[in-house]
Structure to design on (477 residues):
RNA sequence: GUAGAUAUAGCUCAGCUGGUUAGAGCGUCGGAUUGUGAUUCCGAAGGUCGUGGGUUCGAGCCCCAUUAUUUACCCCA
């Protein structure tokens, strides 16, 4: 006999876990829909040509590929085998499991461009797969909940992302969170302020690690990558600006002006948004847009600015983001980010639809679950939806209970009849173990008298009711 | 891909310097109570000590290999 097992990085979810996960999904879905996002689902499998090249070399390594059906090796030649996996792969696998929800979404938008009404707002809650090494908060199969808007570059979308992040986390009871926001334009300006020395991506990769490896670690890495010491000094002066959201914007502005950074101008946006923006920031796109997002949040009634932090060190990989970027962490839990996102100006370009601006973000349900568990914040309990268990002792009383069972279900009370005429003790243990709040006792005595005994498990109180009044009494409570 | 840790009952784990028949708690099942759960008492079942080899009079314990799991790095949700 073999030991049963499941692939590493995957999990089974028992009834209690599913109930808790559904609660998380419900909070997210309600929030997304209240902001006008419509649901979309895409296939588990995508063509590999859609997936490869979108996540960098490392991302391609982490894709799960699916062998072709039938004789998958029929096109493989001896040459291919000698050349190695790169030559082999396209001949044996043409499909793969989706790696995220953003790329399939971009593919969908490009394919359906003619029928979509823009701006197009969609949300998507589906599993994704990554052939990663599993560890804390990292799985090979996990759910993402994405919401994206494409076809508008209004900064209202960015502001609403912050609103949705806060609403979901508050709705889950995860009140102690920090939403970090930055802008790729700010990062680019910082790079320019350093005189354009070294490679831009090296710089961002290094500063993204600031909170992890510290200032000394980052300096060391930058020195190794060919940045000079005075440059690194300037960099830290800019990165470590302190103060409120506004103060950091002003201090970075001063830094950019001092360093002689060429203003990159303001991206055209709607007139009223521009009118709200503070004048002195208008020369740098990143700073300006961050100020506008803050103003839109204020106007929307957002009051949690203590939980929104402008963090110039936030870089979020370097994938396709071009504007604002976001990342959310739950405080006092050792867990990676539970949400992240940003604006991309050309996501659908590689699918033949250039110039479509979009902005979106994603929640990691599995990490939210782990955070709620670590902080002991779950309010959803229970192994079963059953609210009422009918117990019985013999075939006759069991049959006599069937009309009542149907009546309870018709009245919207999830109910079950214990299937076997077991000892009453066993039936009660069943109800207790599953957290069923009500037990109806239907024995020969009750059946003969046309009554039932109802016990409220939590209090232990019992009372006798005529059969015909049971549903009315229960629904009245 | 790099580095470390762990592997003993269904679950969580003890097991001393290598020494008789490998233990506990929880869970499961049965009984005390032939019609009452969560509390109490009694009892039972449940083990190839991950796998293979080695050292030894003797290995759960020491050595080697191997597999699985897990943590950290890289990257990410």
């Amino acid at each position: 006999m073999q030991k049963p097992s499941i692939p590493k990085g995957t999990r089974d979810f028992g009834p209690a876990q599913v109930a808790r996960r559904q609660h998380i999904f419900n909070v997210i879905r309600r929030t997304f829909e209240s902001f006008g996002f419509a649901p979309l689902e895409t296939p588990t499998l995508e063509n590999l040509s859609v997936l490869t090249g979108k996540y960098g070399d490392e991302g391609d390594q982490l894709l799960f590929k699916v062998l072709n059906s039938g004789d998958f090796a029929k096109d493989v030649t001896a040459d291919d085998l000698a050349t190695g996996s790169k030559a082999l792969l396209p001949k044996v696998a043409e499909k793969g499991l989706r790696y995220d929800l953003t790329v399939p979404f971009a593919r969908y938008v490009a394919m359906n461009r003619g029928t979509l009404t823009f701006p197009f707002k969609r949300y998507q809650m589906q599993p994704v797969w990554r052939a990663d090494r599993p560890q804390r908060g990292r799985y090979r199969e996990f759910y993402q909940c994405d919401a994206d808007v494409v076809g508008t570059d209004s900064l209202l979308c960015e502001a609403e992302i912050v609103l949705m992040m806060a609403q979901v986390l508050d709705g889950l009871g995860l009140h102690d969170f920090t939403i970090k926001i930055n802008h790729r334009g700010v990062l680019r300006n910082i790079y320019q302020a350093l005189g354009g020395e070294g490679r831009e991506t090296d710089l961002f990769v290094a500063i993204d690690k600031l909170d992890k490896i510290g200032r000394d670690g980052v300096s060391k890495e930058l020195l190794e990558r060919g940045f000079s010491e005075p440059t690194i000094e300037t960099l830290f002066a800019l990165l470590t600006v302190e103060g409120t959201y506004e103060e950091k914007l002003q201090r970075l502005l001063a830094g950019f002006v001092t360093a002689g950074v060429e203003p990159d101008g303001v991206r055209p946006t709607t007139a009223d948004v521009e009118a709200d923006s503070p004048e002195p920031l208008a020369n740098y796109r990143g700073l300006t847009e961050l100020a506008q997002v803050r103003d839109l949040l204020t106007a929307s009634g957002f009051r949690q600015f203590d939980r929104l932090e402008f963090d110039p060190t936030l870089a979020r990989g370097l994938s396709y983001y071009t504007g604002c970027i976001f990342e959310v962490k739950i405080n006092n839990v050792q867990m990676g980010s539970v949400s992240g996102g940003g604006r991309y100006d050309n996501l659908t370009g590689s699918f033949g639809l250039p110039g479509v601006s979009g902005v979106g973000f994603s929640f990691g349900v599995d990490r939210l679950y782990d955070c709620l568990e670590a902080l002991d914040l779950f309010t959803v309990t229970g192994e079963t939806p059953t609210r009422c268990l009918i117990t019985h002792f013999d075939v006759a009383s069991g049959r006599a209970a069937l009309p009542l069972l149907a009546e309870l279900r018709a009245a919207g009370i999830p109910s079950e009849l214990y299937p076997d005429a077991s000892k009453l003790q066993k039936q009660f243990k069943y109800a207790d173990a599953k957290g069923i709040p009500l037990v109806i006792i239907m024995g020969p005595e009750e059946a003969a008298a046309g009554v039932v005994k109802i016990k409220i498990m939590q209090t232990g109180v019992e009372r006798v009711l005529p059969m015909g009044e049971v549903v009315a009494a229960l629904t009245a409570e």
Remarks:
- Residues 278 and 291 of chain A are 7 Å apart (CA to CA).
- The two ends of chain A are 52 Å apart (CA to CA).
- Chain A is about 40% helix and 20% strand.
